[in-house]
Amino acid sequence: MDAPLAPLTTLRLGGPARRLVTAETDAEVVAAIRAADRAGEPLLVIGGGSNLVISDAGFPGTVLRIATTGFTLDGTLLELAAGEVWSDAVARTVDAGLAGIEFLAGIPGSAGATPVQNVGAYGQEVAETITEVVAFDRLLDETVTLAGADCAFSYRHSRFKADPDRYVVLRVRFRLADEGGLSSPVKYAEVARSLGVEAEQRVKLAEAHAEVLRLRAGKGMVLDPADHDTWSAGSFFTNPVLTDAQFADFTATLGELKAPGYPAGEGRTKTSAAWLIDNAGFRKGHGAGPATLSTKHTLALTNRGSATTEDLLALAREVRDGVRAAFGVDLVNEPVMVGVSL
Ligand SMILES: Cc1cc2nc3c(=O)[nH]c(=O)nc-3n(C[C@H](O)[C@H](O)[C@H](O)COP(=O)(O)OP(=O)(O)OC[C@H]3O[C@@H](n4cnc5c(N)ncnc54)[C@H](O)[C@@H]3O)c2cc1C
After folding, report:
1. Domain 6-66 architecture
2. How far is the centre of ligand 1, averaged over its atoms, from the C-alpha of 329 (Å)?
3. Chain segment 22-53, per-residue pLDDT in tens
4. pLDDT below 50 — which residues of the chain?
5. Phi/psi at 324 (nearest 5 deg)?
């Protein structure tokens, strides 16, 4: 029987699935994957639906919603079941006095999805603390344990994202740090400024956690069902990583304007998608239809209540094309597209 998917996504978009299975144990997850694979049925795994753009036509197969639970702390070692709510888990580690994921507070979705795009914010990303990922490998038809170093983590990317039909994450293991109630060093200038500290200084864990939540809420980046600015998939575009030569070409055309550039590994510079969008003339709230840019953040595309996926994609294409025309830089979507493309 067709099952509506829109209510399972933070964008509230997408048509129905042919079948929806909710799994509450690892064994149920594995059984559902095997059943779909043996029937030759397409499979879509979802957690919190906060990084998904699903076609208005829906999904012609099984959608497996991961709702497993499990939060285990052993000293500084943390193991989370894939279905654990990420932001709740972060809050619990802060309450336990452990540093390592405190700046990732308030990010919606499940723990199991965090390695998929190497979730990151405010100068921290999960690649820094993940030691192991336990996943079901659909190719080998068995459960495997991958060391963090084997997950090919990079900026908003991993081997799980590169090979989406192979691995389903069951558990994620982290090594946190006991810094006597203090946070990891503050890396992000905006956080340092708002906390009134120097970069690289540590602050009380609870303070770091609360400040990140406050900053995120101001940008519509903490879910609030009553606020359409949060009916989004977070940042819709990744920050473009350019070669130093591309970055030099791009900045040479800017005249008075000065674009942000951050070192992004050997010979590469990362610039800001929000800066590009803003300076290409797309302001907060841009768009006349039922899909607009967030009124709090140019990087979030939002559903004002009655949008379709096609409305959202039309807006995304307008922004992408406008940035390309203004600066010659190609924006790439961060959320996973299901049955659609930009
Ligand atoms: C308001 C808002 C703010 C956000 N802020 C940030 C941010 O600061 N930083 C950031 O990095 N992201 C951010 N995001 C994006 C999103 O929250 C993260 O990518 C999150 O990890 C997605 O988790 P999810 O459970 O909702 O995944 P879903 O949207 O359900 O799925 C996303 C992808 O992961 C796959 N997946 C999900 N679970 C599993 C699993 N167990 N095994 C294998 N594959 C799986 C899905 O198949 C899909 O391809 C934000 C989103 C919103 C709506």
Report:
1. 2-Layer Sandwich (3.30)
2. 25
3. 999 999 999 999 999 999 999 999 999 999 99
4. none
5. -65, -45
